[in-house]
Amino acid sequence: MESVRWPRVLSFIGITFAIDWGMIGALQIAGIRFTGAVAGIASILYMLVPAIVVLILARIWRVSVTE
User: Fold this and answer.
1) What percentage of the chain has pLDDT greater than the value 90?
2) What is the pLDDT of residue 53?
3) Is residue 47 part of a domain?
4) pTM score > 0.70 for this model?
């Protein structure tokens, strides 16, 4: 069984949260209300954007979370 590299897993989770909070802050600063279609689109982006960024960073850094 492969062992998990917890520091790397936790750093990817931290990057994901940082991106989420940055997106939320940007929308609030812009004064965009979370209603209707904006809420639906935002909820999809909150899941997709951080995941894509983390996958791209893992690919660039050639990182695996398992040994």
Assistant:
1) 0
2) 82
3) yes
4) no
Q: Which residues contact 27 (CB under 8 A, 6 or more apart)?
A: 34, 42
In a domain, 22, yes or no: yes
Q: Domain count of the chain?
A: 1
What is the distance between the alpha carbons of residues 30 and 24, in angstroms, rounded to a whole number?
Answer: 10
Q: pLDDT grade, residue 38 (50/70/90)? A: confident
| Residues near 42 by beta carbon (within 8 Å), at least 6 away in sequence | 23, 27, 34
- The boundaries of the domain holding residue 12 are 6-61
Q: Which SS3 state, helix, strand or coil, does residue 4 take?
A: strand
Mean pLDDT value of segment 47-59: 80
